[in-house]
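User: Can you predict the 3D structure for this chain?
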Amino acid sequence: MPAKVNGNLFRDTGGRVLIKPLIEFCVGNLASGSQAALEKLEKDPNLDVMEYGCLGYCGICFEGPFALVNGEVVQGATVEELVNNVYDYMDENPMF
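Assistant: Here is the predicted structure, written as structure tokens:
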């Protein structure tokens, strides 16, 4: 396991600083069903998963499961689709 530097920053065995992707959930959306997605994504040690009171995306939040991935909205029609879309988004938008 890389050594933690600060927040979602880690240092690998070669001394390089790594940044984990940040996945953010709105507590209102968790109550509407995305809690299962949060729990699944929290099990991935390569992600930094956070829960907030409100992310300010009320219209999107009302539509269905969503999360912010590195600040970008990712949605799914179901919890399973949301999780898949989060991973797809990260694959299509690498941080490095």
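The chain has one domain: 20-92. The longest strand covers residues 22-26.
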